[in-house]
Amino acid sequence: MVQPCAPRFEHRTEPGPVLGLGTPAPRLSWTVTRAEEGWRQTAYEVQVAGKVFTVRSAEQVLVPWPARPLRSRERAEVKVRVAYGDHWSPWSEAATVEAGLLDAADWTARFISPVDPGERAPVVVGHVEVPGPVRSARLYATAHGIYVPSINGRRVDDTVLAPGWTSYEHRLRYHVYDVTTLIRPGENVLEFVLGNGWYRGRLGWTNQRAIYGDRLALLAQLEITTFDGAVRVLATDGTWHARPSEVLADDLYDGQTTDLRPHDAPATGVDIVEGDLTRLVAPDGPPIRPTSVLPARKVWTSPAGKTLVDFGQNAVGWIRLRVRDLPAGTTVVVRHAEVLEDKELGTRPLRSARATDTWVLSGHDEVLEPSLTLHGFRYAEVTGVPDLREQDIALVVVGSDLRRTGWFSSSHEQLNQLHENVVWSTRGNFVDLPTDCPQRDERLGWTGDIQIFGPTATFLYDTAGLLRSWLADLAAEQRPDGSVPHVVPEIDRAPEFRTPAAAWGDAATVVPWTLYQRTGDLQMLERQLPSMSAWVDKVAALAGPDRLWRGGFQFGDWLDPTAPPENPGRAKADPDVVATAHFARSSWIVAESARLLGRAADAEKYRTLTDEVRAAFVRAFVTPQGRIHSDAQTLYALAIEWDLLPEAEQRVAAGHRLAELVRDGGFHIATGFVGTPLVCDALTSTGHLDVAYRLLLQTQCPSWLYPVTMGATTVWERWDSMRPDGTINPGEMTSFNHYALGAVADWLHRTVAGLAPAVPGYRRLLVHPRLTPELTGAAATHLTPYGKASVSWLRSAGHLRLDVHVPVGASAEVHVPGAEQPVTVGHGDHRWLVADPVSCSEGR
């Protein structure tokens, strides 16, 4: 029987009721299960608060809200059912949505800040009297800083580091909590511990503090509805008070210091401080919270006599440590690091970040766990706890609570480990925004990193909501002339850091385009198009009439393996060629986006610009024989994959030259951030699949698998972040958890396993696995907007078995290896058993 699932709202993915939605007319999406062969949706009905709306349409992803827009705080139950002709399915289960506070006038609260904050993290306290049983209660909250809320001594939920990091000057996110079960008749106490977070803490490598302001402040509104229908509101105002907490110091880079001994301090008042409520926005994506716990794998004593702990996995979070029978005043210190060096904690990659948590104990048995900091680490050094046992310490993994949507496996264990490393680097660097690394004095939203990693990220996790929010910050911080900051949110406004740079600024065009390709969300392009166009217009102004982007500051092919440790931007690829190639790519994206949105004049404008830039690229940088200036792997990959070579002979020659460079380099990778996502695709599309596989499966440095042979559990920032002798690369840019070079995983999904979108949003799948003698099988699964799609292939005993699952609402173009023509199939399970073309070719 056909059965639709409960609808989703916009790009929110949390289970259960969706609270605090900032869109009064949310688009709906649903999947359909158990449909018989040949079934297809021809109509749907949406039931909103008991009223039914019928629509004749085959659409089931991001369909328009059919009812009147929701008002602030309004709650609605929504069901869907679908039809094929005159046959209707049962109704889905209900999904519940509740609007947030949609207008600044909905807030009676005001920002408050402790009058005398002192040295400790403050606790801000309010009281409310409730006369009877509670029907519902909602807490709306945000802060200048980060906050930990509790009611009557109980944590509100497991959300951490709220409200996260946005471009605070333009957009400040608030969260909504259902606190009905925490409110009781009589007096209720609402408390918030305030921490520095991104607002007032240290940010970046220049030791800047309090970039956004020097006072922590809270905005909170608790609305309680009793069964008699009365609503009582506790809103932050001048009647609240503050007191010092146990936290002596807190910083995202340096750690948290906590004194658990009882302390007496008088309560102080609060000031009402400035805070523009029109900045407030509801979340687009999931909150930050603990997502798993890793037990200790090993506890031992180092040569220097230090107690070290290995958790077996480089991750992001903090330590949970149980202590017993230690006297009051005992100091426990935990230091963190990603790697060991000389059998001790390898802290050089932390740069100035202390990454140290300290507790002064109360004398009771207790569990030590911070809440106002975050670390990237695999190893910990613990002092102050004699005879530490493995069962008493664990790593709490923390990050944005993204829904996992993509998986890959193969017959090659090292390749599987590489993919697992990519997954863990994604988990560790999606903490409210896409960051570069989690361990040192940086952890910033570098535009270049997510621009190249976006396709991989969107396959592995549902990042649409998080990236939608980040793109809003990018547009907000884009300068009037169209320039894009190198990091978003921006932290360094020095002139040299405000110079437009190719690949980094191109995040303004590429990331929205990637999201559209993976979700089919045209609204994403429509919202971002002014930002996208402004970036291309800025580059056009820089390039001038000859359409070549030359000179000025460029990151270039960042961290090319030939770049010296002290100068990671000194790549083989000429930066002018890299920049002009990106100019052409972004112009093409804007032209296509405008065409899709029906803006014919803009489409024509940017299509003409694209043609001019491509022609200039060839005139300036490409020989008639297809050689590209500076003769680097990256440049051939860009030219091939971005259609910069108009003559077929040049494209063929460029493919041959790229393959020759890879062979001459001993099948070692020779690309930095810019070329790495494209080099295997370029080899594949020009007929050099065998070279792409040899490049992929190389294990000597530099290569993707070299870190695997060195025991890596995440992707490294440099190809040689750790040298073969176990020493750490001396360069400043030496993280061991940095997803950029893991962008090859997108090729694993699309080409090795063979699962890709043939049209935006996966309504039509492209199944095209490319086989190699080195692998006997591979598989990929992705939760598309229409449901689960999967591909697996297995070579055995001269045969190839190909299994494909297509979700209801989608179809697939399947290229069965060895067959001359692809076949098109509808939803359901499909299997082919054919002669193994690899075995046949080997036999010949």
TrEMBL record:
Its EC number is 3.2.1.40. Residues 303-397 form the Alpha-L-rhamnosidase concanavalin-like domain. GO terms for molecular function: alpha-L-rhamnosidase activity. PANTHER family: ALPHA-RHAMNOSIDASE (EUROFUNG) (PTHR33307), ALPHA-RHAMNOSIDASE (EUROFUNG)-RELATED (PTHR33307:SF6). Residues 134-289 form the Bacterial alpha-L-rhamnosidase N-terminal domain. Gene3D superfamilies: 1.50.10.10, Galactose-binding domain-like, Immunoglobulins, Maltose phosphorylase, domain 3. Residues 403-752 form the Alpha-L-rhamnosidase six-hairpin glycosidase domain. Keywords: Hydrolase. It catalyses: Hydrolysis of terminal non-reducing alpha-L-rhamnose residues in alpha-L-rhamnosides. Residues 1-22 are annotated as: Disordered. The lineage of its organism: Bacteria, Bacillati, Actinomycetota, Actinomycetes, Frankiales. One of its GO terms (biological process) is carbohydrate metabolic process. This is alpha-L-rhamnosidase. InterPro entries: 6-hairpin_glycosidase_sf (IPR008928), 6hp_glycosidase-like_sf (IPR012341), Alpha_rhamnosid (IPR016007), Bac_rhamnosid6H (IPR035396), Bac_rhamnosid_C (IPR035398), Bac_rhamnosid_N (IPR013737), Ig-like_fold (IPR013783), Rhamnosid_concanavalin (IPR008902).
